[in-house]
């Protein structure tokens, strides 16, 4: 295989993450090299050229540790061994090395707060009343709070973290109570042992060449923790250790509240479909159109990136400003990450959102001052597939089946879309049945494709500091179209609704337009001070090296 580039540099994570374009791979569904119908490390390695060509430089994999797969690998039975379906520890190390030679860092998904109920730690603890690696309540009376009956000879109940098959590791309680002795303090023997084990696990994989971790359910470790004070102390201690021992390694969180998690020690946190006091409304107000993965607790809303043009950017912008202000005030640095989707949430192409709506979404995501995270397949507009069978714990509710976002990557027009040579019935999940489904091969040949647009936008972001994560942004118009200025030089216009929209540019911009160049644009027209954007239009305009000043 021909490699490209000279590999990532050796800057500390606080520096290289500023230039990161993240890409999430669900390993079961990305590429199958051995023909068993399930993706694997060798398959990912064979497809690194696509990632390098696209321009992403940081990849994180969903959990690939040994597991009974009751929750698609988020139920770990051995933290130090990869699941045989993906390969071996050596093949993962090879993948990390090959990725590095392509200029790509590889991050693992670390399930820190719980294990599988088949982990040797838990099976031993279920038979040993003196073991406090997990949270156990004794007695015949159910203690409430989701506790499950002991499966072993140990009497009492254990606390799960998510599904019953995922017993919570004991990192202590922030608030203890004499009537509930299972509420051990955070400095008790069990929590201290788990902290050391977590560090040992991270050390193991970093020594094998991995570049860091995305931490699953990062806020879940310390229980009953108002304000997450003890959780923050735990992660700050972990970050201090990493900064000293592995300064080039990154620590990203699945917390969903960057205003809290980044000051707590993480390099970055994602806006998610859950998290913070608004239960993920910041991300949902952008993308969620009440189809695909829908929690019954979510109030229906119209997303800003909806064709009807009835959504609002206010929630997202307020949340982003709050997070960036909190990160700045903490003084440690860090980033907000903005995903197109993830393995638990609907893809951009879901329900009524059509392919023609996606370019505007990517124009925004790749020019806004957050770390962009592309979910595999979104770069070609893969669809969320409804009504799939339950697969490895994918169903969370009557309208919430995560399998629709986890279908096989669509590489080409060959059998199984180039994902696998297995018989169709053996695939991890069924393919998109639409004969016109998008593929990487077809879109690479089409200069006007979504894939080529995403590639150009990534290249533009990487070559243009004013469009990166650290340059300033000035919002000129929050409605339709969304208009903002990056680094005082680049004017961005995004109109995600089907109807045309207009905006009168403020004084200062119009003078810059006399020397403006359309760097990447479709459907945006400027006539004197009037900016007109056709339906689903977008544009990136270079106003010239002198830049502009706009009165506030």
Care to describe what's here?
The chain has 3 domains: 13-113 and 189-463, Glycosidases (TIM Barrel, Alpha-Beta Barrel), CATH 3.20.20; 117-168, no CATH class; 472-542, Immunoglobulin-like (Sandwich), CATH 2.60.40.1180. 25% of the residues lie in helices and 18% in strands. The protein is an alpha/beta fold and 552 residues long. The N and C termini lie far apart (53 Å). The chain has helices spanning 13-16, 27-30, 41-46, 48-54, 89-101, 120-125, 189-207, 229-245, 258-261, 281-287, 314-330, 358-365, 440-444, 450-463, 509-513, and strands spanning 22-25, 58-61, 65-66, 78-82, 105-111, 136-137, 148-149, 157-158, 212-216, 250-253, 268-270, 335-339, 371-375, 395-397, 400-401, 473-477, 482-486, 490-494, 501-504, 517-527, 530-542. The protein has 15 helices and 21 strands.
* Number of E strands: 21
Helix content: 10-25%
The portion of residues forming beta strands comes to: 15-25%
Distance between the termini: 53 Å
How many domains make up the 3D coordinates? 3
Give the radius of gyration.
24 Å
- Overall mean pLDDT stands at 95
Based on secondary structure, the structural category is alpha/beta
**How many H/I helical runs?**
15
- Strand neighbour order, sheet with most strands: 1-2-5-9-10-11-12-13
Which stretches are low in confidence, meaning pLDDT under 50 for 5 or more residues running?
none
């Amino acid at each position: 295989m021909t490699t490209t580039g000279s590999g990532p540099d050796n800057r500390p994570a606080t520096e290289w993450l500023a230039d990161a374009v993240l890409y999430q791979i669900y390993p079961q569904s990305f590429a199958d090299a051995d023909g068993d119908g399930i993706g694997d490390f060798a398959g990912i390695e064979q497809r690194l050229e696509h990632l390098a060509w696209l321009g992403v430089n940081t990849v994180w994999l969903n959990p690939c540790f040994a597991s009974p797969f009751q929750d698609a690998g988020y139920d770990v039975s051995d933290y130090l061994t990869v699941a045989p379906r993906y390969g071996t520890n050596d093949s993962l190390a090879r993948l990390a090395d090959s990725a590095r030679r392509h200029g790509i860092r590889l991050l693992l998904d670390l399930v820190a707060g719980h294990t599988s109920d088949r982990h040797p730690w838990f099976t031993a603890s279920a038979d040993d009343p003196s073991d406090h690696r997990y949270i156990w309540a004794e007695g015949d009376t159910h203690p409430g709070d989701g506790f499950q009956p002991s499966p072993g000879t140990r009497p009492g109940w254990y606390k799960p973290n998510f599904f019953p098959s995922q017993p919570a590791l004991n990192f202590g309680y922030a608030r203890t109570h004499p009537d509930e002795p299972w509420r051990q303090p955070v400095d008790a023997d069990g929590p201290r042992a788990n902290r050391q084990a977590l560090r040992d696990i991270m050390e193991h994989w970093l020594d094998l060449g991995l570049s860091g971790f995305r931490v699953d359910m990062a806020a879940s470790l310390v229980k009953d923790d108002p304000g997450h004070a003890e959780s923050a102390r735990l992660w700050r201690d972990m970050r201090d250790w990493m900064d000293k021992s592995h300064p080039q390694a990154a620590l990203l969180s699945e917390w969903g509240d960057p205003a809290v998690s980044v000051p707590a020690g993480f390099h970055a946190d994602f806006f998610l479909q859950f998290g913070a006091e608004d239960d993920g409304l910041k991300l949902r107000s952008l993308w969620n159109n009440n189809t695909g993965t829908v929690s019954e607790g979510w109030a229906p809303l119209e997303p800003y990136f909806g064709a009807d043009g009835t959504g609002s950017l206010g929630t997202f912008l307020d949340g982003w400003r709050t997070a960036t202000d909190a990160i700045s005030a903490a003084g440690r640095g860090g980033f907000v990450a903005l995903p197109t989707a993830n393995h638990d949430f609907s893809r951009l192409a879901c329900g009524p959102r059509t392919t023609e709506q996606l370019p505007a979404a990517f124009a925004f995501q790749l020019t806004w001052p957050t770390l962009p995270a592309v979910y595999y397949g979104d770069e070609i507009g893969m669809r969320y597939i409804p009504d799939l069978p339950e697969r490895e714990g994918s169903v969370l509710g009557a309208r919430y089946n995560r399998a629709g976002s986890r279908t096989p990557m669509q590489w080409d027009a060959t059998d199984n879309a180039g994902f696998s040579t297995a018989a169709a019935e053996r695939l991890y999940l069924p393919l998109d049945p639409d004969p016109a489904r998008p593929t990487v091969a077809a879109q690479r040949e089409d200069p006007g494709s979504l894939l080529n647009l995403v590639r150009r936008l990534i290249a533009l972001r990487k070559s243009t500091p004013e469009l990166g994560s650290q340059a300033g942004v000035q919002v000129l118009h929050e409605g339709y179209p969304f208009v903002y200025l990056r680094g005082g030089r680049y004017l961005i216009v995004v109109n995600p609704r089907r109807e045309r929209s207009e905006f009168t540019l403020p004084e200062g911009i119009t003078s810059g337009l006399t020397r403006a160049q359309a760097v990447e644009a479709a459907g945006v027209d400027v006539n004197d001070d009037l900016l007109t954007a056709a339906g689903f239009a977008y544009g990136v305009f270079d106003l010239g090296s002198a830049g502009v000043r706009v009165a506030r």
